[in-house]
Amino acid sequence: MYVKLYFYLFGLFICVNTYSQSKCYIEHYGTSDGLPQQTIMSILQDNKGFMWFGTWNGLTKFDGYNFYS
C-alpha cells in the first residue's frame, strides 16, 4: 500500500516540477542580421547592457535590436 503511495507522490512531484519550467525562446542571428561572420569566438556583456561578439572578421556590438561593427 505504501509503495503505491510513494510512487504516486513521486510521479506527482515529477509532473509538477516539469510543468513549472518557464518557456525559453531562442533567437538565431547570422550574417544577414548584421554579424560579420557566422562563427562567434567570444561573447561579453558590458556594464551598459550591450552585448559584444568577437568573430574572426571583427568585433560587433549588439544593443538588442541592431548589430554595429
Uncertain runs with pLDDT below 50, 5 residues or more? Answer: none
Task: Provide the helix percentage.
Answer: 25-40%
| Mean pLDDT figure | 83
Which shape, going by the Cα principal axes? rod-shaped
Largest sheet data = 4 strands, antiparallel
Q: Count of helices?
A: 1
Count of distinct strands: 4
Order of helices and strands: HEEEE
Structural class: alpha+beta
Strand content: 15-25%
The termini sit apart by 67 Å
What order do the strands of the largest sheet run in, or round the barrel if closed?
1-2-3-4
User: Rg, please?
Assistant: 22 Å
Question: What would your notes on this structure say?
Answer:
It is a single chain. The chain has one helix spanning 2-19, and strands spanning 42-45, 51-55, 58-62, 67-68. The mean pLDDT is 83. The chain is rod-shaped, with a radius of gyration of 22 Å. It is of the alpha+beta class. Strand 2 and strand 3 form a beta hairpin. The longest helix is centred in the N-terminal third of the chain and has 18 residues, at 2-19. Strands 1-2-3-4 form a 4-stranded antiparallel beta sheet, with no helix packed on it.
What topology emerges from the helices and strands here?
Blueprint: H1 2-19, E1 42-45, E2 51-55, E3 58-62, E4 67-68
Antiparallel strand pairs: 1-2, 2-3, 3-4
Features:
alpha+beta; 69 residues; rod-shaped; 23% strand
In short:
The protein has one helix spanning 2-19; strands at residues 42-45, 51-55, 58-62, 67-68. The protein is of the alpha+beta class and 69 residues long.
